[in-house]
Structures are given as structure tokens and as C-alpha cells.
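Worked problem 6 (solution included).
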Amino acid sequence: MAEAVATLPKVRRPANSWEIWGRLLVVPYLLIFVIFVVYPVGYGLYLARDPQNYVRLFDDPIFFRTAINTLVFVVVAVNLKMIIALGLSGFFAQTRWWINIVALLFILPWAVPSIPTILSVRFMFNSEWGVINTLIFKLTLKDGPNWLNDPTIALGLSMMMHIWKSLPFWTLILLAGRLAIPSEQYEAASVDGATRWQKFRFITWPSMKGLYLTSTILSMIFTLGDFNSVYLLTGGGPADLTHVLATLGIRYLRLDQIELAMASIVVALPFVLPLVYVMMKRLSK
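Solution. The predicted structure is:
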């Protein structure tokens, strides 16, 4: 009898009015997702479908220089930024009255728009009339360096620009992790005579290691898509030697090579997808 009941087909109950309205209200969001996400991505993959596009892309010496720039940019900028953010999170965790004032000034680079601030820095480093070289000439009676005309210096300044803009955000994330550590652990360590380094090594770092690693992976994903820091400061120059994958597509668009622009975006996926996979694995735990 029980087996007969188990084999009976399940009867679906009709949806009530609330469920119908709920499904109808989801439809506009699905349309927005299809129009502004699925269609552009699908159309871009369609344009880059020809294997000859990738052959032409790999034959372009600027592409390999861009891939190296991207790797250096991500490895150096992200790790330097996160190490500084970890140290600054300890500084801002202090309870002194003036810390709040410093924190307000510190967060301004992240809060203000990117375009005017980065363009202002670009004007400051102009080799002919920028304020930096003007001060150097007044102090030393010598012309300053051509900051943005040297590929190595220009890429380094782009990384500094990226760190300056995004450092406050990651400092706040790590500061929240520090403040979540019970103060009783530090008090007990002080009673036992632990030094600051010992407190960091045995209390702070074990408690924040997961947050730090997750933030680093997420920062790598964001950095791979950072367009403003390079394009607004150097424009990919001089001679297209400071491009990263986030800005290379603009170069091909300006040369009216749309297929290569889409292909340059597609080849960035092997950099991004492993980071997204590791990120989702960490979040699933």
C-alpha cells in the first residue's frame, strides 16, 4: 500500500495571486539583465569568434607587452596595497581622538570621483609645466625627469595612482576585521608580557588571515578591470607601452579594429575566471 502511494504522481497546486505577482515583478529585472548583461557579452563573444582575430592579436607586439604590464600591475600593486592596508588598519584601530580626523582625510581619495583627481595628478607630472618639475627646477636649478614619457616610471605612477585611490577601501575592510577580534585576547596577552609583534603574530594574523586572503583575491579581480588608473594618467603611452588588458581594447577601438578589441577582452578571461573560482570556493566555506 505504501509503495502504491509513493508511486502516485504529485499534483501541482495552482499558483496563488501573490506568487503570480511575484513572478511578474521579477520579469523587468530579468529583461534588464538580458539587455544590459547577456546581450553585450554575447555580442562581444560573437565578434571575437574568428580564430584569425587571436592570431592577429598574438602577432601584435603591444599585446605581449600589455600582458606583462598587467601581470606586474596586479602582482605588485595588489600585494603592496594590501600590506599597507593591513598596517594602516592597526593604526586606525587606536582609540585616540584625532584618529577620526585623520581617517576622514584618509578616505577622501576613495570617495572623490576618479576623473578629476587622476587628471590633476597627470597635470602635476607634466614634464614641461607640471608643478612637480617646476618645484624641482626651483630647488635644484635642473629640469625634472620626463615622468610620463618613460614607460617604467609611467607604469609605476599608474600603480601608485591605483594604490592611492583604492587603499582607503581595503583599509576599512581590514579595520572591520581587526575590530571584530575580542579585546580580552589582547588584554590577556599583555598580562603575559607579549610584545606587539607577538600579539600580531599569534592573535591578529590568525584571526584576520581568511579575511586578508579573500580581500586580496577580490582586489586582484577589481585590479584586472581597473581602467581609470592607467588610461587617465598615461593613456597607454608613451608609444602604447603602458597599456594593461583593461585599456588595450580602447587602443584597438581607436584604430577601428573592433574584432581585436573584443578578442583582447576575451583573452583576459583566463586571468579572471580562476580568481573568481577561488573566490567562490572560499565564500562557499
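Discussion: The CA atoms of residues 200 and 206 lie 8 Å apart.
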